[in-house]
Design goal:
It holds the Pfam family ArsA_ATPase. InterPro entries: ArsA/GET3_ATPase-like, ATPase_ArsA/GET3, P-loop_NTPase. Keywords: ATP-binding, Nucleotide-binding. GO terms for molecular function: ATP binding; ATP hydrolysis activity. This protein has 382 residues and is α/β, with parallel strands linked by helices. It has two domains: 7-167 and 247-294 and 343-379, P-loop containing nucleotide triphosphate hydrolases (Rossmann fold); 302-340, no CATH class. Helices cover 55% and strands 12% of the residues. It is built from 16 helices and eight strands. The chain has an eight-stranded mixed beta sheet, sandwiched between helices. β6 (253-259), α13 and β7 form a beta-alpha-beta unit. The longest helix has 34 residues, at 318-351. The two termini are 15 Å apart. The relative contact order is 0.17.
């Protein structure tokens, strides 16, 4: 039988230092991350919520006009005089280019850093290259943990399967730099530029000529120079990425999978659960958001009650009967939807009986402020 998941107890526990939320889009993952961060702050913990999702939902729900790569304090977090000692909530959004710039500055000389910043390939890679966001997420998380400033770091990952790609960051970046094409492209800078066209094998020479013809000699030289510079500073970045990866597997870290009671969302949740297990990552539990609830009508099945009402009032006041039947039919629709959510959640739980789970009831309106986040926080307790 699936155990209840008390997400509030998780973030209130001083032993919990990092919470990573993941899930598909549109399931309330960002709201869940914000609510967990707020609950951690309310428990007297200095908390920062880092979102990798470029959408603005986190800033809006926290009452901030914008978020950037620097933690911003959220005001009005505590109700009345209930502010706990040490409790504070900060929020930030990953700026992958700025984070990449910081990596370059920390792993090269000022002169070399300026050369890298001016390189057109670096400018493209640091802002839009596939996978850069995940690499920089790993780097930023490592920076936040290393400062020792935070009692709790809550990470809101991108709303897709790529949310867990940062787990591969050390290996993927290593494969990128160790690949044959990268070694080929770095040859000009290592061999003195023009010497690149005098490679020792005919096969590589043909590739060189093709590249030169297609993208031009100057562009090729820019690329090779950048790759060589990146390779020279890679050691420090990979070492810290490895350290962060190990930190994610260590005690004090918890992953929370967020889903909705719909087939696609629960299918994605199953993927996340399986992926985390395969990586031996500490999965704390699953949150099933926006589950609908209904109550019985005078102890009877809603549809039966509606049919009885129609029969009883058929010869009486038609207006009153119509209103009653309409109301009961609405209730039938709600009850049917609620039964669907229960069925879908139970199906997921039966497939993952050892994964703690909590259902969060759907609220009448969307969450867009701190009070809404507090309500979600209360519902996250099992």
């Amino acid at each position: 039988m699936t155990a209840p998941f008390d997400a509030l107890a998780l973030v209130r526990d001083p032993a919990t230092r990092v919470v990573v939320t993941c899930g598909s889009g549109g399931v309330g993952k960002t709201t869940t991350a914000a609510a967990l961060g707020l609950a951690g702050a309310a428990a007297g913990r200095r908390t920062v919520v880092l979102t990798i999702d470029p959408a603005r939902r986190l800033a809006q729900s926290l009452g901030l006009t914008e978020l950037d790569n620097t933690p911003r304090e959220v005001t009005g977090v505590f109700e009345g005089d209930a502010a706990p000692a040490g409790g504070a909530l900060f929020a930030m959004m990953l700026d992958m280019k700025r984070t990449f710039d910081d990596v370059v500055l920390e792993n090269s000389t000022p002169e070399r850093a300026e050369q890298i910043f001016a390189n057109p390939f670096y400018q493209s890679l640091s802002s839009s290259f596939a996978g850069t966001q995940e690499y920089m997420a790993m780097e930023k998380l490592g920076q936040l943990v290393a400062t020792g400033e935070w009692d709790l770091v809550v990470v809101d990952t991108p709303p897709s399967r790529s949310a867990l790609d940062f787990l591969d960051a050390p290996n993927r970046l290593g494969r990128f730099l160790d690949g044959r094409m990268i070694k080929l492209l770095s040859a000009p800078a290592k061999a003195g530029g023009k010497a690149y066209l005098k490679v020792v094998t005919v096969g590589v020479g043909m590739v060189a000529r093709v590249f030169t013809k297609v993208i031009g000699g100057d562009l090729l030289n820019d690329l090779s120079t950048f790759v060589t510079a990146l390779e020279s500073m890679f050691g420090g970045f990979r070492e810290r990425a490895d350290q962060t990866y190990q930190r994610l597997k260590a005690p004090g870290t918890a992953f929370v999978v967020v889903a909705a009671p719909e087939p696609d969302a629960l299918r994605e949740a199953s993927y996340f659960v399986d992926r985390l297990r395969s990586e031996a990552m500490p999965l704390a539990g699953v949150v099933v958001n926006r589950t609908r609830r209904s109550s019985p009508v005078k102890g009877r099945d809603p549809l039966t009650a509606a049919q009885a009402q129609v029969a009883a009032d058929a010869a009486g006041n038609r207006t009153g009967a119509d209103l009653a039947v309409t109301a009961l039919r609405v209730h039938v629709e709600v009850a049917t939807a609620a039964e669907h959510d229960v069925r879908m959640t139970r199906r997921f739980a039966s497939a993952h009986p050892d994964v703690p789970l909590v259902g969060v009831s759907s609220l009448p309106t969307d969450v867009h402020d701190l009070e809404g986040l507090r309500e979600i926080g209360r519902l996250l307790g099992s």
